[in-house]
Amino acid sequence: MVGDEEAKKKASSAAEAVSRLRSVLTAAIPARWNRPVLTGTLFGHRRGHVNLAFQVDARSCPAVLVELATPTSTLVREMASGLARIALECERKEEKTTARTSLLEEPLWRAYCNGRKCGYAVRRECGPADWKVLRALEPVSMGAGVLPGDDPDGDIMYMRARFERVVGSKDSEALYMINPDGNTGPELSVYLLRV
C-alpha cells in the first residue's frame, strides 16, 4: 500500500514537472511560430484560369478554393519575376441583422496581381476535376510542374507550397508562402481584404 502511494506521488510530480516545462517552452516560443500553416496549391490548364486551393493538409477538403480570371500563363509570367502578390478584395456589407460571414467564405472578390487589376475571383466548391488534380498532388509537399491532361484543354500546370496564415482582423488575412530556401521574403503572398 505504501509503495503504491509513493508511486502515485512520483507519477503526479513527474506529470506536474512536464506540465510546467511545456508551459515555459510555450511562453518562450515566438508568436509567429504558433501561426497556422496551410498547404496551398495553384493549378490550371495552360490556357485556362488559375485555381487557388488552401488545405489544412494535403488529404483534406480545401478550406477555400478560388478560381481567378487570370490565365495560368499570365500568372506564371508574373511569378517568373521572382515575387508575386495576389490581393483579393470583397465588398463590406452593412447588414446589421445577420452575422458577418468569414472572410474565407466570401463568394466574390476583385483580384489584383502585383498591383494590377486582373478581373474577379470566385469562391467555389471542389468539383471532381479539382479533386482529381489535388489527389494526384497529395504526395507532393512542395514544388511546381506539369500534370498530363486527359482533356483537349491540355496539360495542367501546378505549384504547391506551405503557406503561413496571418489573420490581421476580421476583415483582413494574409497567406505567405514559406520559402524552403531560407531566403528572407516569400515568393508568393495572397491577401484577403474586406473593404
Automatic annotation (TrEMBL):
Protein name per its UniProtKB record: Protein MIZU-KUSSEI 1-like
Pfam families in UniProt: DUF617
InterPro entries cross-referenced by the UniProt entry: MIZ1-like_pln
Lineage of producing organism: Eukaryota, Viridiplantae, Streptophyta, Embryophyta, Tracheophyta
Annotated PANTHER family: OS05G0577100 PROTEIN, PROTEIN MIZU-KUSSEI 1
GO biological process: hydrotropism
Species name: Cocos nucifera (Coconut palm)
